[in-house]
Structures are given as C-alpha cells and as structure tokens.
Amino acid sequence: MMNKVQFSLATLKELPEILEVIKDARAFLKLQNSGQWQDGTPSEQTIKRDIEAKQFYVAKLDNQVIGVLALLNHEVAYDHLLTGSWDHQTPYKVIHRFAVLRPYTKQGVASYMLDACENLAKQDNIHLIRVDTHEKNIPMTKLLLKKGYLIKGTTLIEGTKLRTVFEKYLRDHSWKYPISFAS
C-alpha cells in the first residue's frame, strides 16, 4: 500500500477532506480520554493559514486524503520546557496537527508520513525534528519512540496544554525508501 500513498502539499480544495480527518482523530482522542483537540483545535482557520503558508501536507491513497500534518519552522512553546531539556540547539522543523483516518491506522501510513517529514527537513538542510503529544495519546507516543524520537520533557502548548515533547536528530542523510511527492 505504501507505494501507492502520495505525500504532497495540501490545497484549499482539499480542506473539507482534511477537516474530516481532523474530526475522525478528535473522536479517537476522546475515546482515549485525552483532552487533546477536544477544545476545537486545530481550527479550520489555523489549517487554512498553514495551507496558504505551504506548511500543511496530506497523505493520499487513490486521491482520498487519509493523513494530514503541518510541518512548521518553530514552536514558541518549545523555547522554554517545563521539564527536561533539548539535546540540540540547531534549527528544527516541528510536526503539528498530525492525524491519520482510523481505517488506515496500523498500516504504516503514519510512519511513512514521518519519513516524508524527515526527507523534507533534510532537503531544507535541517537535521532536527521536534514534535509533541498529549500523555494519553499512546499510539502517537509509541510511533514516535519506534521511529527514533526521544522524549525530552514537557511544555505547555498555548500556555495551558501540557504536552510531552520529542526530538529526533537526523544523523543519516540517506533516504530509507523513495517518498512519492506529488506536485
């Protein structure tokens, strides 16, 4: 299946499908008793801004959006951690708003999307990725650990949302397998 998944910048035309993926993820997180995204974030306006800034990506299978994420250049909440510390102080990319439609979870889509982000970072000569998640988002935590991300501490997103933060230094410059970037 992974050789059929395409990873590309999102378009405003895809916004309805993107919002469906977010809605599905929000419902899943609620089932996990996680407070993550239960306040309506990420909002449609935030996603629109990300798309317009060319910082929002979609994973598509047979022209259907099955995964989404934002790949940003900075997160202000990462400037001061509540606990722990970062290992590296170099420029980094941030993964936010990461979600995969439930029928496609545990099929390698999320892992593929992380690999694509790492490849995009390397193309920009960035060798560090940071990401955060809610402590009750066990599937995301397991995925990040499996992919070599290290827990570095905690921070408050938007000043009030406690999140576990992760960091991965991209030592290897070789690509694991080709990532299909649609134009």
**How far do the termini sit from each other?**
20 Å
Mean pLDDT: 92
What is the element string, with H for helices and E for strands? EHHEEEEHEHEE
> Which strand-content bin applies to the residues?
25-35%
The biggest sheet amounts to: 8 strands, mixed
Query: What overall form do the CA principal axes indicate?
Result: globular
**Major sheet strand order:** 1-2-3-5-6-8-7-4
Query: What are the low-pLDDT stretches, counting only 5+ consecutive residues below 50?
Result: 173-180
Number of helices: 4
Class based on secondary structure composition and strand pairing: alpha+beta
Secondary structure: helix percent: 25-40%
Gyration radius, rounded: 15 Å
- Topology, number of strands: 8
What does this structure look like?
With 183 residues, the protein is of the alpha+beta class. Helix content is 27%, strand content 28%. The protein contains 4 helices and 8 strands, in the order βααββββαβαββ. An 8-stranded mixed sheet has the order 1-2-3-5-6-8-7-4. Strand 2 (56-61) and strand 3 form a beta hairpin. The longest helix is centred in the N-terminal third of the chain and has 17 residues, at 15-31. The radius of gyration is 15 Å and the shape is globular.
